[in-house]
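One example copied in:
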Amino acid sequence: MNTFAINGAGLGLRRELLPALESGVPDVIKFFEVSPENWIDIGGRLGKIFRAYTEQHNFVAHGLSLSIGGPAPLDMAFLQRMKAFLDEHNCALYTEHLSFCSDEGHHYDLYPIPFTEESVRHVADRMRVAQDILERPIALENASYYVTPPLVEMDELTFINAVLTEADCPFHLDVNNIYVNSLNHNYDATAFLKGLCGERIVYGHVAGHDLDKSGVIIDTHGQAACDPVWQLLEVAYQTFGVFPTLLERDFNIPPLEGLVVEVEHIASLQHRYGART
């Protein structure tokens, strides 16, 4: 199913990195990812710089506010703006979180969807509408969450697989989110990973996280990825074959050379486990 124009190891493009990238993009970085909401309305000099990057490099778009599982109607105006952005910047792929973030307004956070049959049908129906408007598939990412959904008819793994099957959509695998959820909700991360619909994976994320003073692990993308997350990525490659994988870093961003070390680690694991057959 991996037919999109990305491969290898990637890095999330943040504005703080632009000065360091002016002298050239390191060879190990094969694609970039952006959240369109951070760039859609950017014009002027910064907009021109961004357009130059999307003309010269492969990009994927990782959305934050589609609210695919939300109760409020889909924002059609937002979807039209998103389509224009994806077309203008020739994004190889658009992905979103399997969660919701709006009802009678935007909540600026990602909330878990009830793990129910009704939710499966609800998300799949909204996916079909959104994909028709965007004229491209949307890959859904397994999301981190900190509160158990109010309604649970099935476990998280069964719910994710049911949505992917009912919507017949690609899968964006985030191994850090599996690790974070496994600690916060007390399940076996490796068993969970191996139970996912691996044939639907189109690309993956690795990232770091922080320990809140309450004892909850928070998916901040503010630290380097830890050893258990790297080990989960290895298990994913061993189980499903190698897929394009990107390093997320949104806060506490180190110099570019520090991030490149982690991207190189992704590339080395991909080389070790070979290409997907």
Notes: The chain has one domain: 9-273. The longest helix spans residues 117-134. The mean pLDDT is 92. The two ends are 11 Å apart (CA to CA).
